[in-house]
Amino acid sequence: MIAMQQQLRMRLGALVIFRGLLQDPVFQALDALLAADEAAPAQATAAWGEFCARLFGHTVNWTDYLLEQMAENENLYVLALCQGRPSPTLDATLASELEFLQQLSAFDGEGLWQALGSPAYLPRWEVSAVDCAGFYRRRLEELPRKGYGIFARYSTFTVKDGALCPVKYPDHQRLEELSGYEQERQQVIDNTRTLLEGGPAANVLLYGDAGTGKSSTVKAVAAAFADQGLRLIEVKKSQLYQIPSLVDSLGSNPLKFILFIDDLSFSTNDDDFAALKAILEGSVSGRTANLTVYATSNRRHLIKETLSDREGDDIHLADTMQELMSLSARFGLTITYSRPDRDAYLSIVHDLAKLYELDMDQTQLDTRAEAHAIRHGGRSPRVAKQFIQSLKAQHE
User: Fold this and answer.
1) Cα dihedral 391/393/395/396 (nearest 10)
2) 8-31, pLDDT tens digit by residue?
3) pTM of the model
C-alpha cells in the first residue's frame, strides 16, 4: 500500500466530529480504495471502479462532493454550536479535522494510478483547489439560513411515527402565481417575516370557503422564504399528539419553522382538541420562539357542533361550550378567505390567463369562465385555475 494512502485512511477512520461521513456510500468506497494495494491489481482496480461509480452518480469532482457533504453534515460541533459555545476540545478537534479534510479534498489517486501502470481504461476524477477550513467556517455562519443535516437538503417535511420525514418532491406554489386576496396574503407574509426576524410571530388561522387559496398561500409563503431559513412541517390532525416532543427538539435549531395543519376541524369529543390547545399555548417550558402554527379550516370555530351538544347533561354547559368555541381565539391572527364575487373572480381569471399566456377575447373568456363556475360549484380561485388550465390544454 502506498504510504500516503495509508496515512489518509488512518486519519479518515479517526474522524470524530465528521464521523457521520463514514456512513456515506462514496466515503465507504473511498476507504476501500485507500486500502487498495498495487500488489493486488485486480482488487485495486475494482476498488477504483467502485469509487468512481459511486462518485460519478453525483459529480465527477471529488472536492465538490466532499464540500457538499461537509456543509450538510449534522455533527457534534454543529449541535454544540446551536446549543451554546462548543468546548475548547471540540474547537481543537474541528481545526485538526478541517486540516485533514483539506488534504483529502486534493486526493486524485495519482500515486496508485501510476503504481498500477497508468492504465488508460481507469477513469480519473477531478479535484479543485479550495480552502476547506474557510469554506466550513463560513458555512457555520450561514446555519440560520441554510441549516444542517436534512434541513439543509429539504425545505418541506411531514411527520411519520413522531419523526420528521423530508418531502423530496413538494407541491411547489409560488406567490407570483396566486391572484386575488392580496391583503389577506400580505398578513401571512408580514407575520412570517416577523418569525424570521426573531420577533413574536402569531399563530395563524386561515379560514373560509373551499378553494379560495388558503393552503396555497401557506405553501407559497414557505417556499418564498425557504432560502432565508424557513422550513415547513405539515402535520395531520391525528398526529397532533406527537408534536410537543418534536417541537421541543427543534427549540435549539437555528432555522425557523411553520407547523402547518390543513383543513382543521374537530368534533366535540375529539381527543386531538387538547393536543392542539397544548401546542398553541406552549408546554411548561413555553412555545419555542422559532416555530409558529399555521392552520387552515372551512369552519370559523373549528368545532363541529350539533344542537344535541347544547342540550346535553353537562352541569356547567356554558363553561364547556365556551372552551370549545374559544379554540380559534387561541390563534393570534385570524384571516378570512371569502368566496369571491363576480368581479374578483374574473380578475383572477384574467391574471391567470396572462400567467399561462392564453390569448383569448376577454368577453368570450369571461362568459366561458362564468359558465365553468356554474358547472363546478361556484366561483373560487381553484375553479378559475382549473378553467384556465383546461383552456390551455385545449389550445395546445
Assistant:
1) 160
2) 999 999 999 999 999 999 999 999
3) 0.83
